[in-house]
Design goal:
Layout (H helix, E strand, L loop, with lengths): L1 E4 L1 H14 L1 H16 L6 E3 L2 E5 L5 E8 L2 E9 L4 H9 L2
Helix pairs in contact: 1-2
Amino acid sequence: MEVVLLQSAQADLLEIFSRYGEASYRLIDSALERIRTMPDLAPVYHSHFRRKLVPGTPFGIFYSVVGTRVMVSFIMDLRQDPEAIERRLSRR
């Protein structure tokens, strides 16, 4: 499987790196590798998105599987208002 970070996920990752540093970035990268090898492991969370929790962080990776690609749409801090998360996911 190929992991594709959409522009929104790239922006999320850059913000996380600037705020939380390299340690969080490495944990997210490790979670992305697990998604690449086992994309169906994470449960469906909203509509067509799956949500992978990133162990050791407050972040969740929201993605969908399209053919042989894992399309990562968002990497979000899950400590925010759940309605804000829903609104962001609904825009896609």
